[in-house]
Design a protein that fits this description.
Length: 94
C-alpha cells in the first residue's frame, strides 16, 4: 500500500477492486484511509502524524492532499464541543 514496489501496487489494486469494484492506485488508497480515519475522529494528533510519516509525507500534506471530508464534517467536532459546553454551563458561550 505504501510501498513503491510494482508487485505490491498490483496486489493492492486487486484487493481494493475485489471489495469496492473500483479501480484504484496508491494515492486513492491513501486518500480513502486518511478520510476514513479523520471522519471517525478517534485518532489522536500523534496517531495522525505517525500515519502521515508512515505514508512518507508530513501531517500538513496529509491534511491538504488526502483529507476529503467536507467543511461541515471538519468543523463538526468543534460544533459538538460548543454544544456540550453550553449544556454544561446553562447557557455558556452559544
Amino acid at each position: 500500500l505504501f510501498s513503491l514496489s510494482h508487485a505490491n501496487t498490483l496486489s493492492h489494486k486487486r484487493c481494493c477492486y475485489k471489495y469496492k469494484q473500483k479501480k484504484t492506485n496508491p494515492h486513492l488508497l491513501r486518500d480513502m484511509i486518511v478520510t476514513h480515519v479523520r471522519k471517525n475522529g478517534d485518532a489522536s494528533e500523534k496517531e495522525l502524524e505517525a500515519l502521515a510519516l508512515f505514508m512518507g509525507h508530513s501531517i500538513q500534506m496529509q491534511r491538504d492532499s488526502y483529507d476529503r471530508r467536507t467543511l461541515e464534517q471538519k468543523v463538526s467536532p468543534a460544533v459538538k464541543l460548543m454544544q456540550d459546553m453550553n449544556s454544561l454551563g446553562g447557557g455558556g458561550i452559544l
